[in-house]
């Protein structure tokens, strides 16, 4: 993608344990491949994620989310269960939810654009919530389906199972969700992605992407020059970058 953005499409997943293992394996492979050359920003596409099991999904994007608290559940009594990432592995209240950490990404602090649609539902919304409050992160697209909640199965005496919605999703800032998530109402970011509401081009224009793309262009240019000219070009570029940074500050 433009500006060396890493793109990850994260569909829903539901099924047997083997399906989850394959999902995580293929998803992490996609993240690793998208990080070559090192990505200066990420696009996480949840537009076709209708839900399922949230933990394989978080395991795939854990390295992009970064370690620490990323969200949780809150029940009617205010009791909370916390989602965390530890060394690239998702956890619930400190307990492993499966899947040890995958290969680290080159820049764990890179900006992220999260894409949602009206089809983004349930556990897909949980992943969107996990990115809420992450620095340099914004959502784009449509509001989600509107069920960012947790369900609990209860076995009845006749053998039937009753599935009840008992918790709401809560982001790392403490905000709870139980309705469609509006991408226009976002908190916890530092404002770096505020320009451009529905376009991803501003993400490619961030300093992290711009500087890397510019360095790559100069490196390619220097390959066609003699050794002395290449050294002079790099020295000139280094001085120019410092001046640009000072001007922005």
Radius of gyration: 21 Å
Weakly predicted, low-confidence segments: 188-199, 218-225, 239-249
Structural class based on helices, strands and sheet pairing: alpha/beta
What value does the average pLDDT take? 82
| Total number of strands | 11
Shape type: globular
Our count of helices gives 6
Q: Give the DSSP E fraction (strand runs of 2 or more residues).
A: 15-25%
Distance between the first and last residues' Cα: 28 Å
Biggest sheet statistics? 7 strands, antiparallel
Order of helices and strands: EHEHEEEEEHEEEEHHH
Give the % helix: 25-40%
Describe it.
It is a single chain. The protein has 249 residues and is of the alpha/beta class. 33% of the residues lie in helices and 24% in strands. The chain contains six helices and eleven strands. The two termini are 28 Å apart. Residues 188-199, 218-225 and 239-249 have low confidence and may be disordered.
């Amino acid at each position: 993608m433009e500006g060396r953005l890493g793109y990850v499409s994260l569909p829903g997943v539901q099924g047997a344990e083997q399906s989850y293992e394959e999902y995580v394996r293929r998803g992490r492979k996609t993240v690793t491949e998208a990080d070559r050359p090192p990505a200066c920003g990420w696009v996480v596409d949840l537009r076709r994620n209708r839900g399922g099991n949230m933990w394989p999904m978080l395991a795939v994007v854990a390295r992009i989310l970064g370690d620490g608290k990323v969200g949780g559940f809150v029940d009617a009594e205010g009791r909370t269960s916390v989602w965390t990432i530890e060394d690239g592995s998702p956890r619930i209240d400190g307990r492993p939810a499966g899947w040890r950490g995958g290969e680290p990404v080159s820049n764990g602090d890179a900006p992220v654009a999260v894409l949602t649609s009206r089809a983004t539902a349930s556990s897909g919304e949980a992943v969107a919530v996990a990115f809420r409050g992450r620095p340099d992160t914004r959502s784009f697209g449509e509001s989600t389906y509107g069920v960012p909640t947790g369900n609990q199965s209860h076995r009845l005496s006749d053998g039937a199972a009753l599935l009840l919605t008992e918790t709401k999703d809560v982001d790392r800032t403490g905000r709870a969700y139980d309705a469609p998530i509006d991408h226009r109402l976002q908190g916890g970011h530092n404002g770096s992605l505020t320009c451009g509401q529905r376009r991803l081009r501003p993400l490619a224009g961030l300093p992290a992407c711009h500087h890397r793309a510019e360095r790559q262009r100069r490196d390619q240019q220097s390959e066609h020059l003699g050794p002395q000219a290449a050294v002079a070009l790099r020295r000139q570029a280094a001085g120019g970058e410092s001046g640009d940074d000072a001007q922005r500050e």
